[in-house]
Each structure stands twice: as structure tokens, then as C-alpha cells.
Amino acid sequence: MTAGLIGSAAPLAEAFDLALVDLDGVAYRGPLPIDHAAPSLTGARDRGMRLVFVTNNASREPEDVAAQLTGLDIPTSPDEVMTAAQAAAQVLAARLERGAKVLVVGGSGLRTAVREVGMTIVGSADEAPDAVVQGFAPDLGWKDLAEAAYAVGQGAWFVASNRDLSLPTARGYAPGNGALVGAVVAATGVEPDSAGKPSPRMYELAVERVGGARPLVVGDRLDTDLAGARSGGYVGLHVLTGVSTARDDILAEPHLRPHLIGEDLRALLVAHPEPVAREGWWTSRGVAARVTDGRLELDDAHGDADAEPVDLVRAACAAAWASADAGAPLDPAAVPELAVGSH
């Protein structure tokens, strides 16, 4: 699959039959809705696109996630939610026998998922667990992390639901599971196996669950959502409503690059132009960009009537990526923040 942007002559909800949609920063932000998310997802369903919400959050039960989405006018059933807790439990089940002892450091969602694959949950390193699985929960404390470190130090297999360093909340970005996992890593020197994004395992499990010949990954983070799409061979749509910005897109290394970029989830309901090279410039709906001597030049004065602000991002990415792939990367200091999306 190309390392650059692709196009779609049809709206994405018609070109793809399944969307694997991230939650925080895409469908909602903490307890709050994100503009256009609910009507856009409803519109995608109306066009025949199925949805599975795929989240690195391992603290909550799928039923709770579905209830929150439904309360935000995005009707969702629990089987349309795939959590990092479920993925972590599947990782455990692939290696351990049923009944194996697992120390769970995390919330109720992780405990339920581990129990459902037949593992025996223990509460202390003194019970000689076969594995430690760690996921985010807001009430985790030093004692929990210490117990995990004791067990890992004694040889238990260490599995993390995900390695996200930050977690979006209504008040801003807070430490995520990766930050807490880092405390156990610092104490033991042992790096965990990770089940969540950027591993593509959750995407694979979601496709296996519901089927889908043409899945599309939709996310807000390049280092998790879109990296997972690239590593799993899925087409990835980056929406600019969460963590990663348009500037991040422009400077992205090949394994982090999205295939498609949209301002928000309305991107599911429209066609996407593929940037084209023309006389030294890369253009998207007439908006143009090029790289000269390591500096990015932008021209949005000659855009077509249907050009949108995100077209400048598409053109800039095409120019920057082509230059970087040819051995002439941009000077990051010369890349401005583009006022597209909400963060």
C-alpha cells in the first residue's frame, strides 16, 4: 500500500463497508460530545457502513461504553465495542492455559475480559501469578503498581493493554496507561507485550467479530490509531479533532502516516481528492504546496470553489512526504501550525 495519501471518488461510507472508530478524540472527548460526530456516524450507517468502536481504554465495560455513546445520540450495542481489555485477554489466552493465574492491575473492564477467557484472577504477587496484565483505571495507586512490579520481578509474564502515554479528558490531557506501565518498567527493567494500538490486533479482532471486506480505521492519534492501521495493512483516516495535529501529519514518518485526512467525522460522508503533482507543486482542489530547500511553501489563493481548509493539509502532506522520501526532509521549524480541526 502506498506510503502517501490516497483518494476516494465515492464518499468513504460507501467505499468502505466497516469503520473501526476510535473513541476519545474522535466520537467524544471525555464526557463531552465532539461536533458533527453523532450525525456523521448516523449518516455513515444510513449508507451501509457498519461501525465498531475500537478503544485503547481498558478500564470500562463494553456495556458502559455503549451506554455513553447511546447517550450522545450514537446508538451503540456492546458487541459494537472492542476494548484494549478484550484484546489483552485474547493475548493472554493465546499463550496461557485456561485456569492460569493472572494478576490484574486495572479496572472492571479488564477483570471481566480476563475472566471471560477462562483465567483465574489473583490479587497478590505472593500467589505466584503466571502473568500480570495492566490497564488504565483512574483509581490505580502505588500499591497496585508495586504489586505488579513484585510479580514481574519474580518472573510473571507482563502484558499491557496499551502504552498510550496520555489520556484525553474534558480538562485536558492526563497521564495514560503507558505512563503507569512506565513505573513498572522502571522498577523491573521488563518491557511488556502490548495488546492495544499501535498493535493491529484489536483491528483484526474487530474484523473477525463482525466481518468486513473493506475496513477503514478512523482515529485521532498517529502514534496509535494510524500506526496500527499502517502495521496491519488497513486504510487509515486521521480526523483532526483529537491529539495529533495537521502539523503532525506533515512531519509524520512513513509508519505513522494516514492514508486519508479529514477535519472531523463528516469526512466519512464525502469524497476525498488525491493530491497530484503539477509543475513542482502538489495540489488538492487547487490548493498547493511544495518544498524548497527544506522549507514548506503554501499557496491557498487559487483553490477551487469546493476547496476546504483540510485541502491545504493534504497538499502540504503530499509535498512534505514526497520530499522526505526522496531524502530531503523538511526543517521542522519551517512547518507552521495549520488552523484545521479542534484540539
UniProtKB/TrEMBL annotation:
Keywords: Hydrolase. It comes from the Bacteria. The lineage of its organism: Bacteria, Bacillati, Actinomycetota, Actinomycetes, Micrococcales. One of its GO terms (molecular function) is hydrolase activity. This is HAD-IIA family hydrolase. InterPro entries: HAD-like_sf, HAD-SF_hydro_IA, HAD-SF_hydro_IIA, HAD_sf.
